[in-house]
Amino acid sequence: MTVPLSPDQTVHAGVLRVRRGAAVSIPYRLRFLGTDDLPALEAFRSFIFDQLPDIDAYFPETPEFAGLHLGERGVILGLEAEGRLIGCAILGLPQPGMPAFVEDLPQPRPAVTATAHMASCMIHPDFRGNGLQRLLVAMRTLHALGAGRTQLFSRVALSNPLSLSNLLAGGFVVRRVLTMHSGRLRYLLHRDMGAPPPAWIPGSERVFAIPEVEEQRLVIEAGWIGAAVDLSGPVPLVTYTRPAVAAVAAESRMEAVS
């Protein structure tokens, strides 16, 4: 179902407190973008791509990418300050027959029409440090729920630990380490809004440096889920822990066999 959204409506407003590390007080607003905004959006996204120290963090999409997330297939949020776009975030609402992130999970898995994609989020370098990415995660979560999508997914490059940190803080967990886009590595993140947050088995933690890809894949296959990232050291560390529900299910299977 397509819900008409006016791009003139402000859905959130606030004040930016940091600009390149300096204290400021700059009003901003958040609104849904429409087809007339696509040229400015593409110019902004191209600017962000050009600023990246490691292009692996984003896989440059076709110019049509953003426009494919309008109408029944999603929404685009735009952050504006000083009369210009300073951030954007895309929420995909995959339709039957369309490629979907959920297809990277083993069966049984949720139906495509129950899922939503946190497909892209970009913040202008001048305004990072204001918590804007986490704000955009929360706003897209609410929109997904309003669209009846309780299964939220995202893909994050292993070379982008800050975005990984923001999504894990927003309730997502690591479910897979994918190889895609001609060898680029991506975490597949998932959040089930229809279930309680995962409970972890105390003492089950396993910690890996982000480059330890095969080790992470092995613990994921064994039932562990990535739950936290530590950015304080020279190499980001991801903590995996075993969900309590997985342990209960495993014990039940063992009892049934015996």
Distance between the termini: 50 Å
- In order across it, which strands form the biggest sheet? 1-2-3-4-5-6-8-7
What is the residue-averaged pLDDT? Answer: 89
Poorly predicted regions: 247-258
Alpha-beta classification = alpha+beta
> Approximately what portion of the residues adopt beta-strand conformation?
25-35%
Sum up the overall morphology in one term.
Answer: globular
Report the radius of gyration as a whole number of Å: 19 Å
Biggest sheet details = 8 strands, mixed
Order of helices and strands: EEHEEEHEHEEEHEEH
Percent range of helical residues: 10-25%
Q: Please count the helical segments.
A: 5
Give the beta-strand count. Answer: 11
What structural keywords apply?
globular; 24% helix; alpha+beta; 5 helices; 258 residues; eight-stranded mixed beta sheet; three-stranded antiparallel beta sheet; 11 strands; disordered C terminus
Q: Could you provide a short overview of the structure?
A:
The protein is of the alpha+beta class.
What would your notes on this structure say?
By secondary structure, the protein is α+β, with helices and mostly antiparallel strands. Helices cover 24% and strands 33% of the residues. It contains 5 helices and 11 strands. The protein has helices at 38-51, 132-146, 161-169, 213-221, 244-257; strands at 10-19, 22-32, 74-81, 84-92, 115-123, 151-157, 173-180, 184-192, 206-209, 225-230, 237-241. The strands form 2 sheets. Strands 1-2-3-4-5-6-8-7 form an 8-stranded mixed sheet, with helices on both faces. A 3-stranded antiparallel sheet has the order 9-11-10. β10 and β11 form a beta hairpin. The N and C termini lie far apart (50 Å). The model is unreliable at 247-258 (pLDDT under 50).
